[in-house]
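Entry for the shared binder. Reason: the reviewer on the internal report wants the predicted structure included alongside the sequence.
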Amino acid sequence: MPLEVGVCLTNYGDVTSPEASVGTGRLAEALGFDSVWVSDHILVPPAFGGTFGREFLDPFVCLAYAAAETRRVKLGTTVVVVPLRNPFAQAKMLSTLDYLSGGRVIFGAGVGWDREEFEALGVPFAERGAMTDEYLDIMRELWTAAAPAFEGRYHRFSGAAFEPKPVQRPIPIWIGGHAKPVLRRTARLAQAWHASEIPVEEVAEKYAFIQGLASPAPFLTYRMYLRPTEIDPAPMRSPAPTFEGDRQQTIEYVRSYTERLPIEHLVVEFVVSTARDLRNAFRWLAEEVRPAL
């Protein structure tokens, strides 16, 4: 299978603007990318804001815009912090988006890491793993069962309709993160492991762990952060391990992952600060880098 490549619409930080969000999905599709992606946080506590910037657009609204202006690209979250929202509301938003887009949603899901955000929203940080497991089970039940019913620690229900169903039954779930509970969750219920920000050797080791738990195993995807020096972008604040380089250096860096790992879908996030730089980076990846992959 050829390597699928997606790009992040970058709905947060210094690049945040209507110009960076409206029309970028259409551009990504025109350039031949396979998917577009957005990230997620609801509140931005001081420590987080000082690192990433205070701006963060809602991922579901951004994907709705992207869905309306495209016809082919997949629409993904990388990743939604599952415990921060009511599972029924999340299931309905994702189901609606999948229904209206013709079955293009990928639900990238994670447990979250920012304790301050959890505390500000009144969500118990220590229970985020258990909440995520239950919420994902609820969503899959709502998406697939003719008469959904569930009994768990946080929610129980039966007898109510959840319609219309998404086109995909169920919407594919890609689990992000790399702690042992995350890997077990991936093996139990996900279609893919959505790895990010870790060295090649660690990806291989952790993916082998997943493969040992599930047969067939979820497939492997990876998100990487790039700053292409050839377009001279103004840097965006980001603590992510960003690779900076020209065309050939970037090709070699990407290949260091894709030629050593069975990655089926690569998601690229550009660490830039303006809408112009983001669009130029999309063109650079499509025209200068992707053909060599």
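Summary line for the report: The chain has a mean pLDDT of 95.
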